[in-house]
Amino acid sequence: MPAVHWKFMKKTLRSFRLFAAVTALTQLLAAEVTPPSQELLLQLDPAKSGADIILVATLHTVDGSFSLKRGAIRFDPATGKASGEVVFDATSGKTGNSSRDNKMHKDVIQSQRYPEIVFHPDRADGTLSTSGDSTLQVHGTFAIHGAEREVTFPVQVSLSGNAWTAKASFQIPYVKWGMKNPSVLFLRVADTVRVQFHAGGSIAQ
Questions:
Q1: Residue whose C-alpha is closest to residue 125's, from 77, 166, 160
Q2: Which side of the chain, N or C, has fewer Cβ within a 10 Å radius?
């Protein structure tokens, strides 16, 4: 076979392989961003869900956690409409120091009077992929210490078969929201607390 024909065939073969690879990658990416076609019911599993808190204080940082009480969210990927609730047990809050925890429950969040912390979503902006990670801007109302306030924060969601996980990180200006700053003498703490939320559960349609 003439050399020029052989070179042409090798070049053509390389071009075909490149085209096939690009086509396959494009199809894969397209499949990953295809949103579910039906409304989803995301059930939260308390064993896989919770919230960690981080409060900056003088010379150290206070870490704590709250347990999930119950939760279920309905989400329509086509419209972004959401409903349902995520309920945390306010009385479960702990930081690893009993006197500090007593002060938090009695003077700050008043958990005996307000035993639940509740988030009600109403919409989510962004595309939810059928598999892998997606980031949605979730809007709703956050109820704590007897008052509800509108909030919006990014949530990373991952779907896999009939299971899902999610995580989010956002700030709560608890003093601005009417709660007491527990600072005493030389121990000063910030007026905002960072919340790191994580959840997991099952999917129903």
A1: 77
A2: N
φ/ψ of residue 76, rounded to 5? -100, 105
Please check whether residues 93 and 22 belong to one and the same domain.
no
What are the backbone angles phi and psi of residue 26, rounded to the nearest 5°?
A: -60, -45
Q: How many domains, in total, are found in the chain?
A: 2
CA separation for the pair 205, 187 (Å, rounded): 50
H or E segment at 135? strand 132-144
pLDDT digits (tens, 9 = 90+) for 155-200: 999 999 999 999 999 999 999 999 999 997 667 999 999 999 999 9
**Quick one: pLDDT band at residue 59, thresholds 50, 70, 90?**
confident
- Name the token pair of 112: 């005996």
Say how many C-beta atoms besides its own lie within 10 A of residue 45's C-beta.
Answer: 14
For residue 187, give every residue at least 6 positions away whose Cβ sits within 8 Å of its Cβ, in sequence order, or none. 57, 58
As to burial, measured by CB atoms within 10 angstroms (0-12 exposed, 13-18 middle, 19+ buried), residue 13 is: exposed
Provide the CA 61 distance to its chain's centre, in angstroms.
23
For residue 111, count CB atoms less than 10 angstroms from its CB and return exposed for 0-12, middle for 13-18, buried for 19 or more. buried
Among residues 181, 198, 201, 179, the alpha carbon closest in space to that of 190 is found at: 181
For tokens 């896989």, name the residue.
Answer: 48
Give the CATH number for residue 83.
2.40.128.110
Give the distance, in angstroms, between the CA of residue 27 and the centroid of all CA atoms in the same chain. 28
Looking at the structure, tell me whether residues 78 and 173 fall in a common domain. Answer: yes
